[in-house]
Specification:
The protein is α+β, with helices and mostly antiparallel strands. Helices cover 40% and strands 18% of the residues. It contains seven helices and six strands, in the order E-E-H-E-E-E-H-E-H-H-H-H-H. The chain has a two-stranded antiparallel ribbon with strand order 1-2. It has a two-stranded antiparallel ribbon with strand order 3-4. A two-stranded parallel ribbon has the order 5-6. The protein is globular and about 50 Å long. The protein starts with a strand and ends with a helix.
């Protein structure tokens, strides 16, 4: 079972979803991005200004999705995709702002060190596991 999370720069989880372990992480990226709901200025905001992700999310579909929603993507180029580079607009990657991606690693460290039951995954039912994740995120906030 994989945990897919979108985290703010202040290490607050914006959205959290679970999926089977067989599927690649990039297949759930758009699903996670569309479930973001943040209250800003009295209305729900669904569009972050920038997305920081690792090189597993270096995908043409993901980059087109972010560009269509006017979201800056800060995703490094994957070595496998570098071989078949096409002409066109170069991908954006700023190394200075990419250091903020450590917040997601910090979130998972807090989640797995503070809640051992989530790290070892004792629950059989996905509903129970998702409920424990929601409680853990609530306590982390």
């Amino acid at each position: 079972m994989k945990i897919h999370v979108c985290v703010s720069c202040e290490v607050f989880p914006l959205t959290i979803q679970i999926a089977s372990g067989k599927e690649h992480d990039s297949q759930h990226f758009i699903e996670v991005m569309e479930s973001i709901r943040v209250k800003t200025d009295g209305r729900l905001g669904t569009r972050p200004s920038e997305v920081l992700a690792d090189s597993t999310y270096d995908n043409v579909v993901i980059r087109k999705y972010l560009r269509s929603r006017a979201i800056k993507s800060n995703i490094p180029v994957n070595i496998r995709n570098e071989k078949n580079r096409k002409r066109g607009r170069p991908t954006r990657f700023e190394y200075e702002s990419y250091h903020k991606r450590g917040t997601i690693e910090r979130f998972f460290a807090w989640l797995k060190m503070g809640f051992r039951r989530i790290a070892s995954r004792y629950e059989r039912l996905n509903v129970v596991f998702k409920g424990l994740l929601d409680i853990a995120c609530f306590l982390l906030c």
